[in-house]
């Protein structure tokens, strides 16, 4: 290990990039250990970390402030920095969350779901999918049908029955 480099770091201020890297490491560690950031709201909150590594000075404070400003990190509803998302991602997540709540969405895990792929000509699949949605014969035989590039993908709880029904309609 280069001791002169260690010696130098105790007597010079870090670059803005070094500050940003340290802030990211600190926030990522906090997030991994605590499940989220519950300590850092402003540049001042990072100062004890930097003052342990570098001599305390007004220029160090300014450099940390510049780094925090440059990182342009969003904040959660309690004012804590969010390290792993941009402001745009946070806005998307908030919009998605609002719509999921309004639509009473719920995650349902079904280990019994099976997949079945119906290969079809691309020119016909949209109309075919519409007919499948409207079919009284098939309506309770699948959970969902999804338009794919080369056909229709079904999720079903009874793959054998759906296969038989579709083969009967094909023949």
Care to give the gist of this entry?
With 171 residues, the protein is mainly alpha-helical. It contains 7 helices and 3 strands; from the N terminus they run H-H-H-H-H-E-H-E-E-H. The longest helix is centred in the first third of the chain and has 19 residues, at 16-34.
Structure characterization notes:
With about 170 residues, the chain is mainly alpha-helical. The protein has two domains: about 5-100, no CATH class; about 115-170. The chain is built from seven helices and three strands; from the N terminus they run H-H-H-H-H-E-H-E-E-H. Helix 2 crosses helix 4. The longest helix has 19 residues, at about 15-35. About 15% of the residues are buried. The model has no long low-confidence stretch (mean pLDDT about 90).
Question: Which short descriptors sum up this protein?
Answer:
2 domains; 171 residues; mainly alpha; 3 strands; 10% strand; 7 helices; three-stranded antiparallel β-sheet
Output the strand order for the largest sheet.
1-3-2
Give me the secondary-structure category: mainly alpha
Q: Give the rounded overall mean pLDDT.
A: 89
Query: What low-confidence regions span 5 or more consecutive residues with pLDDT below 50?
Result: none
The N- and C-terminal alpha carbons lie at a distance of 75 Å
Count structural domains: 2
Beta strand count:
3
The Cα radius of gyration reads: 28 Å
Order of helices and strands: HHHHHEHEEH
Please give the count of helices.
7
Question: What share of the residues lie within helices?
Answer: 40-55%
Shape: rod-shaped
Strand proportion: 5-15%
Largest sheet, if any? Answer: 3 strands, antiparallel
């Amino acid at each position: 290990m280069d001791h002169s480099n260690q010696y130098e770091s105790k007597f010079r201020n870090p670059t803005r990039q070094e500050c940003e890297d340290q802030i990211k490491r600190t926030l990522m560690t906090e997030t991994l250990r605590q499940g989220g950031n519950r300590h850092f709201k402003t540049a001042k909150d990072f100062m004890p970390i930097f003052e342990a590594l570098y001599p305390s000075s007004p220029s160090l404070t300014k450099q940390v402030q510049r780094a925090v400003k440059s990182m342009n990190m969003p904040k959660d509803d309690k004012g804590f920095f969010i390290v792993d998302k941009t402001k745009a991602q946070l806005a998307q997540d908030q919009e998605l969350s609002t719509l999921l709540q309004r639509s009473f969405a719920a995650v349902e895990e079904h280990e019994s779901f099976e997949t079945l792929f119906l290969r079809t000509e691309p020119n016909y699949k949209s109309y075919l999918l519409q007919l499948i949605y409207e079919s009284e014969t098939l309506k309770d035989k699948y959970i969902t049908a999804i338009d794919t590039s080369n056909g229709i993908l079904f999720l079903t709880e009874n793959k054998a029955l759906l296969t038989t029904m579709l083969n009967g309609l094909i023949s």
